[in-house]
């Protein structure tokens, strides 16, 4: 029993060494245990990225930014009309050797795609930026009016960045910066605060042929992977 308790305590210390609150984050990988034969192997796994919540999120430890990073795929978001096949459909795309399930917009007038992340999942004292990853297909239309990209802070304040996507190149992935924020220096793993990010346009005109890959939440001084 003593040996098992010692091993559990050492495992917890190993997790916390390479990322904030990992003992809370890693159980949501969908696997009972994240295996590592050595510190270097664990570090490599965390830098390469670990799938969370049945493949709807990706976690990685950002080497340059020295903090937790995340990619929230569309299955983890709240998207208006996502279950109506007249407006959206699910497709798979291959990026960096991985197959990812993303959301393809057919046509919609009420565009609204929102995500949230708990403060405890983020590293304290780090400045984060939120990026929305999009692709406009060759026949995309209705993007001349500005799209709102919003970031809501735990205190309820919201920052909104407006951007027209009409001049963006077609059939090429691009990012739009939603905003940035600094995480509390002293927050703990029991923090219930959260940040919300959104992309929306509730105008009456139709917007067509866009693919939403998701939201990236990463340290501002990011290495974009190890």
From TrEMBL:
Keywords: Lectin
Keyword Transferase: no
Top-level taxon of the source organism: Eukaryota
Alphabetized InterPro entries for the sequence: PP2-like, PP2-like/Lectin
Signal peptide (residue range): none
GO molecular function: carbohydrate binding
Protein name (record): 26 kDa phloem lectin
Species assigned in the record: Cucumis melo (Muskmelon)
Gene label: Lec26
């Amino acid at each position: 029993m003593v040996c098992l308790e010692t091993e559990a305590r050492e495992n917890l210390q190993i997790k916390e060494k390479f990322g904030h609150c990992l003992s809370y984050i890693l159980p949501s990988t969908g696997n009972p245990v994240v295996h590592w034969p050595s510190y270097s192997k664990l570090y490599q796994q965390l830098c390469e990225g670990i799938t969370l919540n049945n493949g709807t999120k990706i976690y990685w430890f950002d080497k340059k930014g020295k903090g937790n990073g995340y990619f929230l795929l569309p299955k983890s978001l709240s998207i208006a009309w996502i279950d109506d096949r007249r407006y959206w459909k699910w497709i798979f795309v291959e990026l960096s050797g991985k197959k990812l399930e993303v959301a393809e917009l057919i046509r919609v007038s009420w565009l609204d795609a929102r995500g949230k992340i708990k403060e405890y999942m983020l590293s304290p004292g780090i400045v984060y930026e939120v990026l929305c990853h999009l692709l406009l297909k060759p026949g995309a239309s209705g993007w001349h009016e500005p799209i709102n990209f919003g970031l809501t802070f735990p205190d309820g304040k919201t920052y909104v960045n407006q951007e027209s996507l009409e001049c963006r190149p077609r059939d090429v992935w691009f990012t739009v910066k939603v905003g940035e924020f600094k995480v509390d220096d002293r927050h703990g793993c029991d923090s219930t605060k959260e940040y919300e990010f959104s992309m929306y346009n509730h105008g009456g005109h139709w917007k067509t042929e866009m693919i939403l890959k998701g939201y990236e939440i990463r340290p501002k001084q990011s290495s974009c992977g190890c």
